[in-house]
Amino acid sequence: MPNPFEAPEYRRLLRAARRSLERTGGDLDGSVSVSSPDDAERKAIIGVTGQYRPAGTARLTVRLAELDAAVREAAGRGLPELLAELGGPLRDRPAELASHVAERETTIRSLEKSLLFAEFEWFREWIGAVARDGTLTKLVNSGEQWRIAQAVRVLEFLAARDGVPVLLPELAAAVTGDTKALNPGTVLSTLVLRALSLRSLELGAGGPARFDTAQARRELWDVSDVVVDDLASRVLVLNLPASGDGLGEWLTGAACRGVPFYVTLQQLLAMPVRIGEAAVYVCENPAVLRRAASDLGACSAPLLCAEGRPSTAFHQLASAVVAGGGGLLYHGDFDWPGVAIAASVMARHGARPWRFGAADYTAGLRDDSMLLGGSPQSTPWDPSLGAVMTSAGRVVYEESVAGPLIDDLCTGGEA
User: Fold this and answer.
1) Do β-strands 166-167 and 226-227 pair in parallel, antiparallel, or remain unpaired?
2) Using CA atoms, how far apart are residues 212 and 79, in angstroms rounded to an integer?
3) Based on the domain organization, do 399 and 262 belong to the same domain?
4) Same domain, yes or no, for 105 and 219?
5) Same domain (yes/no): 112, 83
6) pLDDT of 383-395, one tens digit each?
7) Among 91, 110, 136, residue at a domain's last position
8) Which of 74, 145, 347, 376 is deepest in the core (most CB within 10 A)?
9) Do 239 and 223 share a structural domain?
């Protein structure tokens, strides 16, 4: 027996009924409407309700109970069954919502069980952020809440390594089994980078607050000891003799000649070096190292150059200096990014300031210095430095005060 409700004039009415039943979980107490009905639709609805509606009526309303009764009489089954037969199973949106809410809460509770939750504010802030901005809800609604659990495992993996560098594909494979899981643009990569950005800010590691460019992503991975490219991660060295086959020999040879030498992370990992007790100076700008090489050559004290934000290669070599019983003395630009970098190097490696206090800043000030911009940073090694910089409001770049630094490299001063 043909089903009259398969006719085109019932199509919009049944679509409205499906939306209503899905929205209410199958409640037949409501009503649905058809706006601007054509004549066939008007007659069909008159047949359902038994109530005459004149031509030209702008909107026709039908109680779902009436429609259900008409369907049962004509088709021998209820409205929900007819809709399922014509368009697939009805969704129970209230039940789905309740399930998603419960799953969301379950996911949050599971994240709070991580050891990172109890130990780190940045981790708690990350969970709060993804819960507030809809990220977690979107993942739960799409059945992909496992992705945020994966992100937690990545963060826990990095925390357990305690600064030991790892290649990005190796990290992805170790946690997910897929070397490309942390490639740019993946959900997992975005989740992890959001957390690492908060971690970098909290720990003063000097990483970028945003990661919307390839360079910013590389820098954020780098300050988190994740290496995107172990050949691109490098540190510029002057006069740092070391022991160890290969790289140690090269560093010693370069020091004998007083020539700058680039060391890559790949070399440091493949050919570990040992460095005896030494006071090693650190500058931020390669212009300072270039001048030391030109003016002092092999007579210069050992010098590392961070070249801005320190790379994983820099941290690896700095750690080797400290492990050998040596120490670092740090100088950088007197601007807020430079101060943040200095603080991170001092915190991570126990470095001491090298002509990097309030008096040194004041001595280098000039009336034509660039205006100081950005967010002020704390200067715990000399609290007055931050206050003086804020008051003066000008930048003092490292190369503009290189004279005293070169003198120290010649005599071992300020150590």
Assistant:
1) parallel
2) 51
3) yes
4) yes
5) no
6) 999 999 999 999 9
7) 91
8) 145
9) no
Please name the amino acid found at residue 23: R
Structural domain ending residue among the three candidates 187, 211, 227:
227
Residues with Cβ within 8 Å of residue 361, at least 6 apart in sequence: 334, 385, 388, 389, 392, 396
Structure tokens at 361: 């800043």
141 with 186, same domain: the answer is yes
Same domain, 84 and 112: no
Provide the 3-class DSSP secondary structure of residue 35: strand
Higher pLDDT, 97 or 198: 198
Task: CATH number of the domain at 330, please.
Answer: 3.40.1360.10
Same-domain check for residues 136 and 82 = no
Interatomic CA distance for residues 406 and 58, integer angstroms: 88
Q: What residue type is 390 in one-letter code? A: T
What's the total number of domains in the chain? Answer: 3
Q: What angle do CA 221, 226, 228 make, to 5 degrees?
A: 75
E strands of 239-285, at which residues?
261-264, 279-283
Cα 27 off chain centre by: 45
Token output for 44: 């069909």
The answer to whether the CB of 223 falls within 8 A of the CB of 203 is no
Reported as a single tens digit per residue, the pLDDT across 148-175 is 999 999 999 999 987 788 999 999 999 9
* Closest to 255 in 3D by CA, of 312, 297, 309: 297
DSSP element (H, E) containing 76: none
Residue 84 near residue 90, CB atoms below 8 Å: yes
Residue 350: band (very low, low, confident or very high) from pLDDT cuts 50, 70, 90: very high
The single-letter code of the amino acid at 412 is: G
pLDDT interval class at 102 (50, 70, 90): confident
Q: Which domain holds residue 41?
A: 4-91
Tokens of 244: 């160890």
| pTM: predicted TM-score of the whole model, two decimal places | 0.67
Query: Based on the domain organization, do 405 and 276 belong to the same domain?
Result: yes
**Do the Cβ atoms of 311 and 234 come closer than 8 Å?**
yes
- CA dihedral in degrees (150, 310, 333, 251; nearest 10)? 180
